[in-house]
Design a protein that fits this description.
Residues 199-260 form the ANTAR domain. By secondary structure, the chain is an alpha+beta fold. The protein is built from 8 helices and 5 strands.
Length: 272
């Protein structure tokens, strides 16, 4: 029996007996979903595109899913015990899931995704309109014709980095069998999402370093130009740039760019 949080106070219908053919079909769908995950190459697409692919493979791998979304938590993951996980981004397979995400994260600040990231356990509901865990969210989503949900935390090295949220229009769409397959899918999915997040963060850090180095070079050039004109020290030249920056409310690097550009224009004018 999978370890998950079922809807409290509601007894779902008996678990259906699956035929051997149905079990083989479900196992094949899970395998195809996992194979799809394995073919994802971090860096070959944006993080949003990768999350969308993971969501699409979740629809294939987990029985009963009509649409799914993958939510990425703020860098650093979800701190254990944090009652309000911070959401960085999310991608969906259908637009109605995006509307559900808006209700969950922006309007009500309650719902299965937030719950599963907080508890670090899958959360399932077969009748969202009557689920007392999410009294505001559940009723609104049920009126949209969505009655079942299975939310799976994405965990890497004890760190919750996000969640897969699977929705269905029918009641009691996610049996314990579906939860078991969902958990099997979520483990490698978490690794794919985590690797993409790490690579994206590394690229952004590299871009910031390159920008900083470029700015430093321009500032050094501007300091040299000011010193050649004034005969002052390096500190005095930098203080002059800083004062202009403060007075005009622009970055020091932008002031330096102006100084260098002006010096280049004067040099060209003298050569004419």
């Amino acid at each position: 029996m999978p370890d998950y949080d079922a809807q409290p106070g509601r007894r779902p219908p008996p678990e259906p007996e699956l035929s051997a053919d149905q079990l083989r079909s479900d196992e094949l769908d899970l395998k195809l979903g996992l194979d799809g995950l394995a073919r994802i190459v971090p860096g070959a697409c944006t993080v949003d595109d990768l999350l969308r692919q993971v969501a699409q493979f979740a629809v294939q791998a987990i029985p009963g899913v009509d649409a799914a979304g993958v939510t990425l938590a703020h860098p650093g993951g979800v701190v254990a015990g944090d009652s309000k996980p911070r959401i960085q981004t999310c991608s969906v397979t259908e637009e109605f899931v995006r509307a559900i995400d808006t209700l969950q994260y922006e309007e009500f600040n309650e719902g299965p995704c937030l719950t599963c990231m907080h508890t670090r356990r899958p959360a399932a509901s077969g009748s969202l309109g009557g689920d007392r865990r999410w009294p505001h969210f559940g009723g609104r989503v049920a009126r949209m014709g969505v009655r079942s949900v299975l939310a799976l935390p994405l965990i890497v090295d004890e760190q919750v980095i996000g969640a897969i949220n699977s929705y269905a229009h029918s009641r009691d769409a996610f049996t314990e069998h579906a939860v078991t397959l969902g958990v099997e899918f979520a483990r490698p999915a978490a690794v794919s999402v985590y690797n993409a997040q790490l690579l994206n963060d590394a690229w952004q850090h590299t871009a910031r370093l390159q920008a900083a180095l470029s700015s430093r070079g321009v500032i050094d050039q501007a300091i040299g130009i000011i010193r050649s004109r004034s005969g002052g020290t390096e500190r005095e030249a930098f203080d002059r740039l800083a004062r202009i920056s403060q007075n005009e409310h622009i970055k020091v690097s932008e002031v330096a760019d102006r100084v260098v550009d002006e010096a280049v224009r004067r040099a060209r004018a003298r050569q004419q």
